[in-house]
Amino acid sequence: MKNTFLLLLICSFLLSSCSKKADPFLISKQSVGFLNDSTTVGQLKLAFPNDSLSKPIGGDEFLGNSNIIKVYATTSQKLLLELTPAEALDSLSTIQYVRIMDDQFRTEKGLNINSSFDDIASNHSISNVQNTLRSLVVSVDEINAYFTIDKSELPEDLRYDMTKSIETISIPPTAQIKDFFIQW
Question: Where exactly are the structural domains of the chain?
Answer without folding.
Answer: 23-107, 109-184
